[in-house]
Design brief:
The chain starts with 11 loop residues before the first helix and ends with a strand. β4 (118-123) and β5 form a beta hairpin. It is 29% helix and 20% strand. It has a 6-stranded antiparallel β-sheet, with helices on one face. The protein has a single domain, classed as endopeptidase fold (from Nostoc punctiforme) (Alpha-Beta Complex). The chain has helices at 12-23, 35-47, 62-69, 74-82, and strands at residues 84-85, 97-100, 110-115, 118-123, 126-129, 135-140. By secondary structure, the chain is α+β, with helices and mostly antiparallel strands.
Length: 143
């Protein structure tokens, strides 16, 4: 049985914009500012719920991240167990999460978040706009 999604907070828009501004130029760092934590931080800003709480502080390398995600079914499994699939990419709201395959090098993909109609992901040197054509799956983060 799928768990009920949290409600969107009244402060969601302001919190998401604050997070976006604070993370714009923060470089990628495993366990601190990677794609999964960017998505989790965005969902937390919108709902107050942290779907990555059990992972925080437990990894600082790609190998450690993979070992934490493997039993969950990878990024897709993590999202599928905590969020709800959305019927269409165009129906995502700000704070919803997308799984992308941005450059062909990410065998497991990368997480991104919808913000003001854009799909925003964690890049090497800060947040980046991700082409919609790279989105392969998407989820609702709240009711």
């Amino acid at each position: 049985m799928m768990q009920q999604l949290p409600r969107r907070l009244p402060t969601a828009d302001a919190a998401l914009q604050h997070l976006l501004r604070s993370r714009t130029d923060v470089p990628f760092r495993w366990g601190e500012s990677d794609c999964a934590l960017w998505a989790a931080d965005a969902v937390h800003a919108v709902t107050g719920t942290d779907f990555a709480a059990a992972m925080r502080g437990r990894y600082s390398t790609a190998a450690q991240a993979r070992s934490l995600l493997r039993p969950l079914g990878g990024l897709h499994g993590l999202l599928a167990s905590t969020l709800r699939p959305a019927p269409a990419l165009d129906l995502l709201a700000d704070g919803d999460v997308a799984l992308t395959q941005p450059d062909g090098l990410h065998r497991v993909g990368a997480l991104a978040v919808r913000v003001r109609g854009w799909v925003i992901g964690q890049g090497a040197d800060g947040l980046v706009m991700v082409p919609r054509s790279t989105v392969i799956s998407w989820w609702r983060a709240f009711q």
